[in-house]
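Below is a filled-in request sheet from our internal design queue. Each sheet records the structural input a requester submitted and the sequence that came back. We keep these sheets so that new team members can see what a complete request looks like end to end.

REQUESTER: design group, bay 2
PRIORITY: normal
MODE: inverse folding
CHAIN LENGTH: 90
BACKBONE (tokenized):
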């Protein structure tokens, strides 16, 4: 499923115009991105939780040369599925 599929689902479910549906979906995604950018936790009941977690520094290898290289610490987005999502998937 891609963003266009979500927009189409909003159009058919709510009978709003395509441009309004695109704006609504884009606004939701931008709000999620902004909240995660600020390090906030996003909890969507019965769907799941998005959170920002730190990633430690590490040592990796260049696959071409085999040379060890340092991997700097960073942050990453984690998703934990909620009960409703787990039950609907199987």
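RETURNED SEQUENCE:
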């Amino acid at each position: 499923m891609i963003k266009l599929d979500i927009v189409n689902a909003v159009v058919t479910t709510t009978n709003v115009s395509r441009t309004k549906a695109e704006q609504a979906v884009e606004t939701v995604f931008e709000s999620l991105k902004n909240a995660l950018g600020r390090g906030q936790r996003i909890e969507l009941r019965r769907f799941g939780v998005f959170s920002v977690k730190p990633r430690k520094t590490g040592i990796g290898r260049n696959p071409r040369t085999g040379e060890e290289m340092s991997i700097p610490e960073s942050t990453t987005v984690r998703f934990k599925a909620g009960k409703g999502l787990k039950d609907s998937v199987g």
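SHEET NOTES:
- Residues 38 and 78 are 14 Å apart (CA to CA).
- The two ends are 18 Å apart (CA to CA).
FILED BY: M.R.
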